[in-house]
Automatic annotation (TrEMBL), chains A, B:
Name of the protein in question: Transcriptional regulator
A Pfam family this chain is assigned to: HTH_3
Highest classification ranks of the organism: Bacteria, Pseudomonadati, Pseudomonadota, Gammaproteobacteria, Alteromonadales
Single GO term (MF): DNA binding
InterPro entries the UniProt entry points to: Cro/C1-type_HTH, Lambda_DNA-bd_dom_sf
Length: 95, 95
DNA sequence: CAAATATTCACCGTTATCAGTGATTATATT
DNA sequence: AATATAATCACTGATAACGGTGAATATTTG
């Protein structure tokens, strides 16, 4: 069986700013769901090798494959919320 | 000059679940910063064509290029916060 | 409406992904 | 420790990304 991964293995960073962190996030979610690599790949409609590389932090993967996994596993990505400040009520400002 | 894009052009979705939405987010941020495609590409260390394709929602782009842009523009991505619930104090649960 | 600027597109050569298969290595279970 | 299971790696052939350049197409400004 695969190595068990819990949230304690997740990077302490709040932000997903690298393929490594994204890969760890995906692996943590998959193992939490208790599904193996091969089944997850089939579920997400990508190859086993590709999923393995994504989880291992390989940055040379396509957005297509990554979003297939994120959506397949129900992982929700957000940027900082669209919250116009008082100084910019017209809504040109991201925070 | 390029078409002006403000946050009003941003997708109403809270979640970034496709290359299209990610591309729009990037473009909104770049235009908000007032820098042109070529300068932004140089700043992020990628080619102009690649940045153009990313902003236009092409899913066949590498994570490497995308993270170069996100980090170059200071766009912070997050998943749902790591908040272990009372029922899982050992930390196996994402919300 | 014309001029200037910004973006997209088509092409090139190089390089690398991708799915699939089978072999190797790592991890769990008894 | 031995067995079963899971994940990684090395290969194949097909397809496509990547950066660079230059041309074509927006888009903005005077």
């Amino acid at each position: 069986m695969a190595k068990k991964v819990t949230t304690s293995d997740m990077p302490s960073t709040d932000f997903i700013d690298s393929a490594e962190i994204l890969g760890k996030l995906i692996r943590a979610k998959r193992t939490e769901l208790g599904i193996k690599l091969a089944d997850c790949a089939a579920l997400c409609g990508i190859g086993i090798n590709t999923l393995s590389r994504i989880e291992n932090g390989n940055a040379n993967c396509t957005l297509a494959a990554v979003f297939s996994v994120l959506n397949g596993l129900g992982i929700k990505l957000t940027s900082k919320a669209l919250t116009p400040t008082a100084s910019s009520s017209s809504g040109e400002e991201w925070i």
